[in-house]
Amino acid sequence: MRIPLEQWRELPDSPGVYFFYGAGDRLLYIGKSVRLRQRVRSYLRAAGGHSTQTERLKFEAETVQVETTGSELAALLLENRLIKAHLPPFNRAQRRWRHYPFLRLDLKDPFPRLEVTRELVEDGAEYFGPYRDRGTLANFVKQMSQLLGLRTCQDLAEIHQGCLLDQLDRCSAPCRGWIDREEYHQRIAQVRRLLMGEGAGPLLQQLEDRMLQCAVQEYYEQAARWRDRHLALQHFVAYQGWRKNQVVLDVCAIYPTTQPGQAEVFWVRGGRLDRVDCFSHADPCAVMCALAPYALPSEPLFRLPQQQLDEFHLIATWLYRNQQAPEVVWLQGESFETLQEQVLGRIQQVLKSGYPPADKHREPEILGS
After folding, report:
1. Peptide bond into 112 cis (omega under 30)
2. How far apart are CA 183 and CA 194, in angstroms?
3. Which stretches of 22-133 are DSSP H helices?
4. Which residues pair with 275 in a beta bridge?
5. What is the pTM of this model?
6. Taking burial as the number of CB atoms within 10 A of a residue's CB, which of 82, 122, 186, 202 is the most buried?
7. Four-way CATH pick for 3-95: 3.40.1440.10, 3.40.50.720, 3.30.420.40, 3.40.1050.10
8. Per-residue pLDDT tens over the stretch 155-201
9. Where are the domains of the chain?
């Protein structure tokens, strides 16, 4: 049911997603809020203070429609999926992560190379990331390519007589047939292990040993090159450790639904939404089955399909803001029986209390939030 914007008082003051429509029932914008009525009312504020794009939206929007949810988290996830499905012109959330670099590795290529890219394409290649700093990533690619002799040229078919890197002994020169495909792919496998957080220790030690050996022999230029490679790998490994801590997020969030007498449980494993269950009573067997996968250590997640990037970012940001909330149960560091007891206890509390508490966070006046 759609109503004119002027009739905002008829909207529920509960969590959910709202839709702004313009002339000809054109969908303009999708947003979420923990208080739909107050959120829609904020767009009609005459005092100003809106961005230029929000002012344009106010001018073009004619009607509003809402879909209520039981919690802010449910509204957040629903908004993200609807934006992906409809791509409204005033939304920006679907572009999230596009400015962050990725590493591309095409294993279908006879002699693959490491590429830094900002675009994810369904071309069968492997993409690792996203990463925060393009400069650090580019330095890692440069140093590892020189260390392992990986090609850096864009088109191998156009090069037949070698290149400057070949003459400097910084490339294995597959263009000249100096390395076969099997040996080259063994080096690529070593890079893939590094990108997945494995095998860095022995390689770091090897680089340090070569650096010290060159320094003892007073080959200082060579020692500086080994030092640069060691530092590049060290910085990259430190960042991979940071990512590992960020993405190994095993939690569940328990909230009421829009239906009386029901609790909604969001199971998050490895930073991604694994499943959503609804409970009309605290069922020990169902909770035990849902908790069973969490008894095993979750794998570090270094590669995300494009369609999951926004959802991962949204969940991680939401968990950061709500890490101490009573609705969130962290499924780490406790025994299986303790976790089961905590989840069942929280479900019982939600079933008794009913509607979710008011959100304490002020919602910004930003489109695409």
Report:
1. no
2. 17
3. 36-43, 52-60, 72-86
4. 267
5. 0.60
6. 82
7. 3.40.1440.10
8. 766 666 667 666 666 677 777 777 888 888 898 988 888 887 777 78
9. 3-95, 102-246, 251-353
